[in-house]
């Protein structure tokens, strides 16, 4: 599903955060990526989600070599991946209601006609009932906003989910609930998962296998 | 036993919102904290934990209505005016270790300059004695002296945490409040931060830790208070709560069961909105043990507010 070969990436070519990293996620597989803060695991997640262009190396998604990143990534590849970030407040447009937040990827890809149906499916799945969908991010808790961000990541039915510290801000019950949402989706669709985090106990429980990214060095995974 | 360092009695905080809505963030919370002791206040996000900390320090916004009493050192804090709080309480009686320390530090000044200002203001040390006093203040929070001339953005999460802790310790306040001190830190750093905080309790301070991280709470606390929808629903000895016999309130049991090292199953549903709380037990709609009795609100008695407490011996 996802293949990273000899990827070097960072924010300054002289001091890359990741050097020569290999990572493979098979179809339907759940891989946990573990590492201390500052080791580059979020950068790796961004490369895998086509949100950051690596300095060197190759990324293959669903068997296709990725020809460009960010806005240069072809839509068909971009929509193959759903991403959930650590901090929902920084990942949500404060002007949108939760309904529009979840529907945004559909509208951006010209599929606005599906909005009503997908929302009716997804809102109960992630546990957003009542009037929560009509509220803005500042009117809901972190946990509720992260539920909306998970729904947004699932709305295009991605074949690969990337969760970068999805639960680091959340309490134990919301963590278990959102991991459950992701796992139910994967069970129903056979989607693959790359879960990035620092909590070994959580990733061991969640993923098929867990791999380490050591600080500032290369990884073979 | 000596008089408690902090006594909170029937503390309630309500916010008046636009459109006549009222949000009951904290309701009838009572607890005491003794010197050398650590109390962890745990609960889901939005349960009122941080509002409680702000109330103790008089840092609530203008639309807050506060009831109850908070005593420390023979002084009542809720009725105290801003001048007294600023001059005599904050930093001197109560040190606050804030949530997201990187955001709490002044971004345009070095750690040394911020520590020096606080040392000057709180201890009156000036002139030639100042550099030594600053070095000593940094050392108390294990902040490395070779990093004193760095700006906050040049610090890792762990070091920013220690810089904020160093600032909180300068006034030698007998009571420390740490608001989510471990959010966003990785596990190793959480353990180290928590152990460092624990040392300050072992030195004879009272430590109130507000956290949603149950593993951190288990590591640091002597007692644990579980908050749900603004109320304390269980107040227990930490060892018994996290170990054996275990929690007694179904909500507390559900929170612990949600941990990945335990059952990893969530509590069904979500916490109620604080502007539309049910008449009776606020947890009843999510509770497997709820019955007609739960329409009547359970009062906190003997450390527990529940009509159908778990019998830990058989749970």
From TrEMBL, chain A:
GO biological process, one term: transmembrane transport
Entries under InterPro entries matching the protein: AAA+_ATPase (IPR003593), ABC_transp_ATP-bind (IPR050319), ABC_transporter-like_ATP-bd (IPR003439), P-loop_NTPase (IPR027417)
PROSITE patterns: ABC_TRANSPORTER_2
Entry keywords, A to Z: ATP-binding, Nucleotide-binding, Transport
Limits of the ABC transporter domain: 2-221
Domain of life: Bacteria
UniProt keyword Transport, yes or no: yes
Nucleotide-binding keyword on record: yes
UniProt GO MF annotations: ATP binding; ATP hydrolysis activity
Matches recorded under PANTHER family: D,D-DIPEPTIDE TRANSPORT ATP-BINDING PROTEIN DDPF-RELATED, TRANSPORT ATP-BINDING PROTEIN
Family named by the database record: Belongs to the ABC transporter superfamily.
Name recorded for this polypeptide: ATP-binding cassette domain-containing protein
Organism: Streptomyces chumphonensis
Lineage: Bacteria, Bacillati, Actinomycetota, Actinomycetes, Kitasatosporales
């Amino acid at each position: 599903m996802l293949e990273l070969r000899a990827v070097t990436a960072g924010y300054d070519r002289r001091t890359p955060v990741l050097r020569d990293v290999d990572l493979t996620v098979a179809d339907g597989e759940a891989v946990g990526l573990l590492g201390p803060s500052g080791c580059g695991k979020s950068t790796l997640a961004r490369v895998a989600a086509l949100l950051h262009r690596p300095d060197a190396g190759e990324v293959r998604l669903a068997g296709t070599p990725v020809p460009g990143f960010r806005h240069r990534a072809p839509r068909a590849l971009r929509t193959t991946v759903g991403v959930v970030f650590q901090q929902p407040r920084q990942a949500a447009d404060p002007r949108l209601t939760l309904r529009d937040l979840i529907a945004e990827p559909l509208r951006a890809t010209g599929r606005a006609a599906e909005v009503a149906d997908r929302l009716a499916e997804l809102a109960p799945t992630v546990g957003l009932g009542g009037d929560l969908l009509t509220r803005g991010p500042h009117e809901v808790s972190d946990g509720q906003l992260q539920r909306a961000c998970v729904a947004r990541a699932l709305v295009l039915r991605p074949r690969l989910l990337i969760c970068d510290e999805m639960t680091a801000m959340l309490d134990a019950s919301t963590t278990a609930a959102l991991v459950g949402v992701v796992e139910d989706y994967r069970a129903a669709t056979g989607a693959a998962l790359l879960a990035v985090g620092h909590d070994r106990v959580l990733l061991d429980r969640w993923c098929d296998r867990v791999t380490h990214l050591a600080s500032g060095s290369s990884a073979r995974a | 036993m000596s008089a408690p360092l902090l006594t909170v009695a029937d503390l309630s905080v309500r916010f008046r919102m636009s459109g006549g809505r009222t949000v009951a963030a904290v309701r009838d919370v009572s607890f005491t904290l003794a010197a050398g002791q650590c109390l962890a206040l745990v609960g889901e996000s939005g349960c009122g934990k941080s509002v409680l900390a702000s109330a103790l320090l008089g840092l609530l916004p203008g639309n807050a209505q506060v009831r109850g009493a908070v005593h420390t050192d023979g002084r009542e804090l809720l009725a105290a005016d801003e001048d007294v709080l600023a001059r005599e309480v904050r930093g001197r009686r109560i040190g606050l270790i804030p949530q997201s320390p990187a955001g709490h530090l002044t971004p345009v000044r070095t750690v040394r300059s911020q520590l020096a200002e606080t040392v000057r203001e709180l201890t009156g040390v000036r002139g030639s004695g100042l550099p030594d006093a600053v070095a000593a203040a940094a050392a108390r929070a294990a902040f490395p002296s070779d990093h004193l001339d760095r700006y906050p953005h040049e610090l890792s999460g762990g070091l920013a945490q220690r810089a904020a802790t160093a600032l909180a310790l300068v006034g030698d306040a007998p009571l420390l409040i740490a608001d989510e001190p471990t959010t966003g830190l990785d596990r190793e750093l959480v353990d180290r931060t928590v152990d460092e905080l624990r040392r300050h309790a072992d030195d004879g301070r009272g430590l109130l830790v507000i956290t949603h991280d149950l593993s951190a709470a288990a590591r640091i606390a002597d007692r644990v208070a579980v908050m749900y929808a603004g109320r304390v629903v269980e107040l227990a000895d930490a060892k018994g709560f996290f170990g054996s016999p275990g929690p007694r309130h179904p909500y507390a049991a559900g929170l612990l069961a949600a941990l990945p090292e335990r059952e990893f199953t969530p509590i069904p549903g979500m916490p109620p909105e604080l502007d539309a709380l049910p008449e009776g037990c606020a947890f009843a709609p999510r509770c497997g043990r709820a019955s007609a009795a739960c329409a009547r609100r359970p009062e906190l008695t003997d450390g527990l507010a529940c009509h159908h407490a778990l019998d830990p011996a058989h749970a």
